[in-house]
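agent> fetching stored inputs for the S-adenosylmethionine docking request
agent> found them:
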Amino acid sequence: MPLLLSSWEIEAILRGESILSFDLGVTYDEYDVVRKGSVICVEDVFCMPVPVLKRASRKRGRVYEIVEEDGKFFLRHVAIRERHYYQLVQPHRGKPTTLEIDGIHMHRVKGADPYTDARMKVDALEVERGMFVWDTCGGLGYTTIFLLRSGAQVMTTEKDPNVLKLARINPWSREMWRADVRLADATRFVRNVPDESFNRILHDPPRFALAGELYSRDFYRELYRVLKPGGILYHYTGSPGRKRGRDVQRGVMRRLFEAGFRYLRREKRTEGVIAVKPSR
Ligand SMILES: C[S@@+](CC[C@H](N)C(=O)[O-])C[C@H]1O[C@@H](n2cnc3c(N)ncnc32)[C@H](O)[C@@H]1O
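agent> prediction call returned; pasting tokens
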């Protein structure tokens, strides 16, 4: 596992604190922190110039990997710049990270930390031990982790290889790999899934404007088909445009109804919708 530091941890090092984490707060340990002139050494982990650490600490929430080359240590920003810009971000010291794609957080970070947010979504789904569950949009795997902790057998799909690359680095995602994780587009993947395969589906897509196909009636019909009778769907929607009087959930619930789902209700705590495939 790479050694990782967030801006928060670097601030703590600059303050001379000795209880530190090199896995973004999953575990903490005590280290000797020694300042020699303009260089700070953390035991035998690394030595780095103070100005380098100060510069890195100013980027709030940024995550860095400690890299060693020819006996010198560097901080490499954990980010991927391709068609989109991805970075792992830690909103608060010692708390779970989130994934930022083109500046948009993939988890709620205000009010609840990303783990709490994921746990609340899973709670809404009433999962029981041994159930088969599909987590359609894997991300950093936090909802998958709480599904696994509920005792479910979990299949997870994630379309973007860069997201899975960051999940591999992210210490908060470690438990995710106990699930059957597939690099796949959920809208294509579902076509090859046999009817009535899952007891539960957790659908936590990016916002509507970024992935309209994951909010379409055709996709909802497929979700309905692969759910077992009596199965439950949790669909995160968020509330984009609420201040402008927009109600995304209304349209989602209408299309879910048209796809066959019943007992539809808003799940206010998590800004989602619950839908049931009626038993025969
Ligand atoms: C809101 S995040 C999911 C967060 C995840 N539930 C967690 O707890 O970490 C949405 C994810 O859906 C992925 N995604 C977007 N379109 C997809 C598709 N068609 N199939 C599968 N995943 C998709 C994005 O790459 C992103 O990682």
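agent> quick read of the result: The CA atoms of residues 221 and 259 lie 5 Å apart.
agent> awaiting further instructions
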